[in-house]
């Protein structure tokens, strides 16, 4: 038995090493490795599966008796509230950046506007995973999302709108009448940034009275959404209906743990799935069955990796700052190691100034992200599900 487990560990090491050395992989082999189940990637029933099962069986009842109200409170005070404050501050900064004369946007004020746009995109990406079910009307959930992806034809819609409104400037009232995609940060990117090919440097496009009015209207809308979300999720503040409903739901127990604890596990799982299985795989064309390759969100502004990094940082925070990791301390060390590895890969690519999404790349370093993200999701959600009696996760091995 020991010999078999040692063999499994050797297979895990060799396969992961092979996956990390993606520079010489052909596209077909990269697709195969990226889309294989965790069990296959780690040696047909060994590796992550053995580690997850061993850690799950080793859980003692004491490991699953954490204070749910403390976890729910930390989810607000240590995790959600700081991100909502940063989002609201970035919204105000964006409004101020676009208040300068229109004709200076792509010249003397280009750096200031680019930085303000980067900050609002980063702040919102850090909240994308925060989608607690709205327990009552008035709580902003999915309706507050400002990143639209995939968004086929969005650039064409924006251009047609600008042409149609060239003689009449859009105001905030007009923006509110538009569809969600046309008042999103994704649409604002089209208004502000010129289309670019390959790995060309992002640049602001020359502005017009119509485009300036549209951009300012979208910025006003974004700032209002950010301010509303801050009011709803700031603990102890008047009108914090989201925070209040979240705290109250800790009394609705399900199994050994409250609904809020289970919801945090679901948010962690869904967030990792979005980063890896949706955006990363689709952007690299590594999906099975094969689907058309999609441009990642904010590729025009060069912020695709910024969004991805902000997503991973937020999920690491969700796992650690809410004390979810303390429910399964042994597994937590492994999960945190994989998440740190994923961040290191992204940071190295950003530092290299290589655009991994540009066509014509002989190999793509982003393929390396597949293993740590999938391992973190598989081990993290499976062990947390077992520790908290979240059956539909436990039965599926932490995957959906």
Give a written overview of the molecule.
The protein has a two-stranded antiparallel sheet. A hairpin with a 2-residue loop joins strand 1 and strand 2. It has helices spanning 2-20, 27-35, 38-41, 48-57, 68-97, 110-125, 154-164, 172-177, 185-192, 209-233, 241-248, 259-284, 304-321, 329-352, 370-388, 391-394; strands at 253-254, 257-258. With 400 residues, the chain is mainly alpha-helical. The protein is globular, with a radius of gyration of 22 Å. The model is unreliable at 1-29, 37-46, 59-66, 134-143 and 396-400 (pLDDT under 50). The protein is 59% helix and 1% strand. Helix 6 packs parallel to helix 13, helix 12 runs antiparallel to helix 15 (370-388) and helix 13 packs antiparallel against helix 14 (329-352).
């Amino acid at each position: 038995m020991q010999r078999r487990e040692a063999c499994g560990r050797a297979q895990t090491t060799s396969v992961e090493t092979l996956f990390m050395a993606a520079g010489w992989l052909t596209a077909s082999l990269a697709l195969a490795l990226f889309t294989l189940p965790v069990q296959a990637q780690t040696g047909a029933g060994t590796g992550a599966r053995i580690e997850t099962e061993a850690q799950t069986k080793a859980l003692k009842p004491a490991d699953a008796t954490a204070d749910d109200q403390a976890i729910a409170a930390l989810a607000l005070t240590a995790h959600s509230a700081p991100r909502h404050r940063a989002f609201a501050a970035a919204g105000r900064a964006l409004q101020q950046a676009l208040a300068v004369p229109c004709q200076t946007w792509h010249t003397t004020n280009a750096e200031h506007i680019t930085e303000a746009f980067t900050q609002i995109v980063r702040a919102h990406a850090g909240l994308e995973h925060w989608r607690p079910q709205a327990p009552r009307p008035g709580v902003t959930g999915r309706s507050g999302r400002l990143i639209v992806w995939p968004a086929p034809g969005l650039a064409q819609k924006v251009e047609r709108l600008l042409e149609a409104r060239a003689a009449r400037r859009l105001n905030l009232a007009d923006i509110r009448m538009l569809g969600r995609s046309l008042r999103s940060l994704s649409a604002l990117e089209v208004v502000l940034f010129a289309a670019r090919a390959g790995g060309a440097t992002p640049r602001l496009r020359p502005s017009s009275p119509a485009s300036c009015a549209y951009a300012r209207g979208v910025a006003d809308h974004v700032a209002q959404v950010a301010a509303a979300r801050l009011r709803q999720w700031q603990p102890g503040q008047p009108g914090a209906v989201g925070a209040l409903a979240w705290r109250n739901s800790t009394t609705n127990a399900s199994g050994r743990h409250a609904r809020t604890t289970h919801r945090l596990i679901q948010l962690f799982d869904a967030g990792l799935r979005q980063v890896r299985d949706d955006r990363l795989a689709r952007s690299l064309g590594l999906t099975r069955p094969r689907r058309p390759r999609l441009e990642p969100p904010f590729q025009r502004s060069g912020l695709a990796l910024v969004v991805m990094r902000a997503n991973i940082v937020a999920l690491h925070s969700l796992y650690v700052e809410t004390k979810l990791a303390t429910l399964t301390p042994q597994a937590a060390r492994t999960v945190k190691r994989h998440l740190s590895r994923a961040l290191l890969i992204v940071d190295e690519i950003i530092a290299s100034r290589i655009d991994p999404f540009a066509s014509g790349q002989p190999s793509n370093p982003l393929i390396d992200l597949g293993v740590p993200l999938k391992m973190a999701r598989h081990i993290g959600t499976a062990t947390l599900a077992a520790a908290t009696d979240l059956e539909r996760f436990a039965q599926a091995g932490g995957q959906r």
